[in-house]
Amino acid sequence: MDAMTRRSARRLLAACALAAIALTSGCNLSDAFLKPREVWLVEPDALGLAFEDFELATGRSTSVHGWFLANPASDGRTVMLCHGSAANISFYHPYYTFLFAAGYHVALFDYRGYGQSKGDVSIAALFDDAERVLEHVRARPEVDPERVVLFGTSLGSVVALRTAARTDGLAGVVVEDTLSPRRYLRRELGAFGAWIVGAFALPGGMEPTATAGALDCPSLFVAGAWDPDLVTHLEAAAAAAAPSACWTQPDTGHAPGGLLEHGGEYQDAIARFMDACIDGSVRPIEVHALGDGVELARTDSAEAPLAVELCLVDADGRARFESLWLGAERVTIAIDEPFEHATAWEYRRVEGSPDSGTWGRKRGPLARSADTLGYLGSLANLVRDSATPVVDARVFAAELRAGEERDGALHPLAAAELVPHLVQVGEVLIAAPGAIDRALGRDLLKRALAAEPSNHGAHYWPSASYRVGFPHGPALGRARAALAASNP
Fold first, then answer.
1. Do residues 344 and 237 make contact, with C-beta atoms less than 8 angstroms apart?
2. In 3-state terms, what secondary structure has residue 440?
3. First and final CA of the chain: distance in angstroms?
């Protein structure tokens, strides 16, 4: 064997070794990247929605399980949900309930290894399963195959984009907080490890910039300004080949943070965009970068001024926002600071008028309650650590009362999240020597019991960590014990 042949053989052996490492890493990657949750929370019928279970074979011993919520008002309009990594379909009632209320059939499913779907988790299976379900959904007699919208959140946005890019005749696609699998690999494995696994173990065509560029249907990109993958998301939005809109949400982290901070506006905006996809009337605000600013161009035919929020994002992913009334067809805005990406979005729920020249977002009851919840949580922590806990417990109760007099009763989701704080402070007061304090403590404990959700599985809190299910049962047990032991 000559020297050249030996070198070629060594290269071949090295390539085989790298491929083997990559395939092994790919298996480990699936475990790291895909994180099924075993908990099963709530099914649609518990929320008053009829649904059909379906199970589709994907192999000899594998299948994909899902739900189909038939809506008599849909006229064939359908949305198919692709969920994120650390969830299953029983977590997604905050999404399918508002999509159903918007007049759509809703289909959602679990990837292999998730929920009731059979088989092992696999990155490649994500896309196979989504395409299999989409084929099933579009073939259903109550579904118009040309009036189907895909909707993906987090990892599900990668799945939705790739599926939409490989499917003809979809009405549209909505993605929230999309991410780059290759950038994820670089964070987890380093540049070389990411290259090896990407070359040998990842399915092709996963990157959102590539799949967005292959779309032939309208797309909506939604992202929280605090999401760590915001730049990836904006790059994908900029690459979209078909008509595209992009909503960068201020004061918002990863999905489902938009449900919290922009509740009401969020649901309306998603439904309005999907309706426009179905009707063929998607008319986004176009944003054109200039040398010293941006140009905003309206593509609709209406004349009324729009409440528009311009978002400018620098190379490090830091976002800043400017609000304006957009009346003219085209407006140029001078920008002093450098930026890499610019997006614009029209808000409908606002305070202010074009005559005033300014406007502000009208925050929904859930967002206002979240502010109150955060403040009361801080006060409860003071009570816990205080040298005068009874005095500080009185302050907690007074601030709770004042907040509700000012802003109205807490949203039921926030009231349920307040339970551990109510119990903690109530226990301090019910043990106090004064009769007034003890009565106040009993009121707080009774309030905690009244805030218990009727269905623990249906409770959720859409913060960045997305708490699902009601975890405060032990605190309610303490409340009942304290009330039983007290002497009114």
1. no
2. helix
3. 97
Q: What does each C-alpha distance from 318 to 184, 315, 472 come to in angstroms?
A: 19, 7, 36
Instruction: Give the position of tokens 């040298």.
Output: 387
- Rounded to the nearest 5°, which phi and psi values hold at 328? -75, 165
Span 32-284 CATH architecture: 3-Layer(aba) Sandwich (3.40)
So what's the pLDDT on residue 486? Answer: 87
DSSP run (H or E) holding 108: strand 105-109
Q: Three-state DSSP class for 85? A: coil
Among 322, 368, 316, which residue's Cα sits nearest to residue 345? 322
Instruction: Give the residue from 401, 416, 437, 423 showing the smallest Cα distance to 475.
Output: 423
CA atoms within 13 A on the CB side of 475: 24
Q: Is 308 helix (H, G, I), strand (E, B) or coil?
A: strand
Euclidean distance between CA atoms 274 and 99, whole angstroms: 10
Whether residue 184 is predicted with pLDDT greater than 70 in this model: the reply is: no
Look up residue 34 and give its DSSP letter.
-
Domain ranges of the chain: 32-284, 288-361, 365-485
Q: Which amino acid is at 272?
A: R
Residues in the chain: 488
Neighbours of 316 (CB within 10 A): 8
The residue assigned the tokens 């085209």 is: 330
Half-sphere exposure (Cβ direction) of 374: Cα atoms closer than 13 Å: 7
Tell me the pLDDT tens digit for each residue of 437-474. Answer: 999 999 999 999 999 999 999 999 997 678 889 999 99
Which of 72-81, 205-214, 408-417 has the weakest average pLDDT? 205-214
- Residue 462: asked if its preceding bond is cis (omega within 30°), the reply is no
| Residue type at 85 in one-letter notation | S
Helical (H) or strand (E) element with 171: none
Residues 6+ apart with CB under 8 A from 144: 75, 76, 77, 78
User: How far apart (Å, rounded) are the C-alpha atoms in residues 372 and 229?
Assistant: 29
Name the CA dihedral angle for 115, 116, 120, 123, rounded to a multiple of 10 degrees: -50
Give yes or no for a contact between 464 and 257, defined as CB atoms under 8 angstroms apart: yes
**What would you report as the CA-atom Rg of the chain, rounded to the nearest whole angstrom?**
26
**CA separation for the pair 104, 270 (Å, rounded):** 12
Q: From start to end of 273-417, where are the E strands? A: 286-290, 293-297, 306-313, 319-326, 330-334, 341-347, 350-353, 358-361
Angle at 189 between CA 226 and CA 110, to 5 degrees: 65
